[in-house]
């Protein structure tokens, strides 16, 4: 179910009203910036990606179909793909300039994890590390499940199940914490 | 049916679709299942919610001033799009005008080419006419001036009693001409027609008009021992001479 603000933004986007961009930035800017940063691990580059993504969002506003994806899913796809494309183009460029044998694009592992990630806001991210690693590889490193399986040396079937369980666990944790927060609010 | 849905949910198509990592076929399949089966739709919506939760964990404070830069970029892009739209409209109009002009000029070209062909043909016909006429005048000159030319006075009989004509025959140059100086009045439905007998065949020489042709020399096809005839025929001429209506004959001897 789309929230009121989401519906409002969608209608503004459909009308090509630039207020939509300001609202999108206010509501999703930090998350999308975090997504871009998570992929490229560079603040300047993440800022470029966010700018590029917002221009794409504006250009593609007509093509957004609420029946196919929620607004955030659509925004996430654009930002993630822009970031992955940027990272690949940079990697390809540096591969051409300097013959580097090992790219760090897919270097995901415990060492590759952002320390911020382990200190997740409001303790919402307390899913097991094994799930986080898989979700990160798939969501932020642009790996296919097959690539993640090879890179992380985990069987494909396990990747699939960890993805499913990881996402499900997130939902559960979020639901529980939200409920707790609501209860605390009511009690106080 | 439930098994089919279960089988679909067990694949990773929905997760891949969530991340926009599907092929075209997989996307269509995912969209079909989401639209058709509430169970799949529910799972997909949950996945979307969880994706948002997951991504929000990584939310990072955006740098100061980035919002203004983004709004400026989008605004600039919007203006550029508007400008592009205006240019596109202008270009479309220009293309339409050019296309219209091209069609107009093509039509003009076609009609000019047709006209050119017509004029060329006319010129060729005129040239041929001039050559024929020049040849005729030259022959007339030869016939009238050559000492070997024999002159015959032709007089009509029957209805053409008043018909007067002079035939000029030159056996050396093998040319023969006739000048009809007086043509008697005939009923409106009749006319005089000239014939020449050449090698046993009668050749139609045409109708003698009442007034215009008095000073004109008609060329006759020459044949040794040939004979020319003038007959009275129905108005407009006949395809073969009416023998009983011969009003004059000219022997080339």
Summarize the structure.
Chain A contains eight helices and no strands. Chain A is an all-alpha fold and 188 residues long. Helices cover 50% and strands 22% of the residues of chain B.
Order of helices and strands of chain A: HHHHHHHH
Count the beta strands of chain A. 0
Main sheet overview of chain B: 4 strands, antiparallel
Spans of at least 5 consecutive residues with low confidence of chain A: 100-124
Largest interface: A-B, 52 and 40 residues
Given the C-alpha coordinates, what overall shape of chain B results?
rod-shaped
Q: How large is the count of helical segments of chain A? A: 8
Portion in helices of chain B: 40-55%
Q: What number of structural domains do the residues of chain A give? A: 2
Q: What's the name of the CATH homologous superfamily of the largest domain in chain A? A: RNA polymerase sigma factor, region 2, helix turn helix motif
Label the overall shape of chain A.
globular
β-strand percent of chain A reads under 5%
As laid out across the biggest beta sheet of chain B, the strand order is 1-2-3-6
Would you mind describing this structure in some detail?
The complex is a heterodimer of chains A (188) and B (253). Chain A starts with a helix and ends with a helix. Chain A is globular. Chain A contains 8 helices and no strands. Chain A folds into 2 domains: 4-101, RNA polymerase sigma factor, region 2, helix turn helix motif (Rna Polymerase Sigma Factor, Chain: A), CATH 1.10.1740.10; 105-187, Arc Repressor Mutant, subunit A (Orthogonal Bundle), CATH 1.10.10. With 188 residues, chain A is mainly α. Helix content of chain A is 71%, strand content 0%. The longest helix of chain A is centred in the last third of the chain and has 32 residues, at 156-187. With 253 residues, chain B is of the alpha+beta class. Chain B is 50% helix and 22% strand. In chain B, the strands form 2 sheets. A 4-stranded antiparallel β-sheet of chain B has the order 1-2-3-6, with helices on one face. In chain B, a hairpin with a 2-residue loop joins strand 4 (190-198) and strand 5. Chain B starts with a helix and ends with a strand. Chains A and B meet through helix 2, helix 3, helix 4, helix 6 and helix 8 of A and helix 2, helix 3, helix 4 and helix 5 of B.
């Amino acid at each position: 179910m789309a929230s009121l603000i989401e519906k409002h933004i969608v209608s503004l986007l459909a009308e090509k009203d630039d207020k939509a961009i300001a609202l999108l930035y206010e509501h999703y800017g930090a998350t999308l910036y975090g997504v871009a940063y998570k992929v490229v691990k560079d603040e300047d580059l993440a800022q470029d990606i966010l700018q590029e993504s917002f221009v794409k969002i504006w250009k593609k506003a007509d093509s957004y179909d609420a029946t196919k994806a929620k607004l955030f899913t659509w925004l996430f796809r654009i930002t993630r793909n822009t970031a992955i494309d940027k990272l690949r183009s940079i990697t390809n460029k540096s591969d051409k300039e300097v013959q580097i044998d090992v790219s760090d694009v897919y270097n995901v592992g415990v060492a590759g994890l952002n320390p911020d990630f382990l200190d997740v806001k409001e303790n919402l991210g307390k899913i097991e590390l094994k799930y986080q690693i898989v979700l990160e590889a798939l969501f932020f490193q642009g790996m296919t499940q097959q690539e993640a399986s090879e890179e992380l040396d985990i069987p494909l079937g396990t990747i699939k199940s960890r993805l499913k369980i990881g996402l499900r666990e997130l939902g559960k944790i979020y639901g529980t914490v939200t409920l707790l927060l609501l209860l605390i609010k009511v009690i106080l | 049916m439930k098994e089919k849905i279960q089988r679909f949910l067990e694949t990773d198509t929905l997760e891949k679709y969530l991340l926009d990592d599907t092929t075209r076929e997989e996307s269509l399949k995912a969209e079909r299942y989401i639209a058709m089966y509430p169970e799949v739709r529910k799972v997909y919506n949950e996945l979307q919610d969880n994706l948002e939760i997951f991504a929000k964990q990584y939310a990072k404070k955006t740098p100061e001033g980035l919002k203004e830069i983004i709004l400026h970029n989008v605004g600039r892009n919007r203006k550029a799009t508007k400008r592009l739209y205006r240019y596109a409209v202008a270009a479309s109009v220009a293309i339409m005008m050019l296309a219209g002009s091209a069609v107009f000029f093509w039509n003009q070209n076609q009609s000019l080419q047709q006209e050119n062909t017509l004029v060329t043909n006319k010129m060729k016909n005129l040239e041929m006419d001039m050559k024929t006429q020049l040849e005729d005048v030259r022959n007339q000159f030869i016939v009238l001036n050559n000492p070997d030319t024999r002159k015959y006075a032709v007089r009509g009989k029957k209805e053409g009693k008043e018909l007067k004509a002079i035939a000029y025959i030159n056996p050396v140059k093998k040319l023969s001409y006739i000048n009809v100086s007086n043509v008697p009045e005939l009923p409106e439905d009749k006319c005089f027609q000239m014939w020449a007998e050449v090698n046993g065949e009668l050749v139609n020489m045409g109708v003698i008009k009442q007034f215009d042709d008095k000073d004109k020399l008609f060329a006759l096809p020459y044949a040794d021992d040939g004979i020319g005839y003038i007959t009275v025929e129905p108005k407009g001429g006949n395809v073969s001479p009416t023998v009983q209506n011969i009003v004059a004959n000219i022997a080339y001897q």
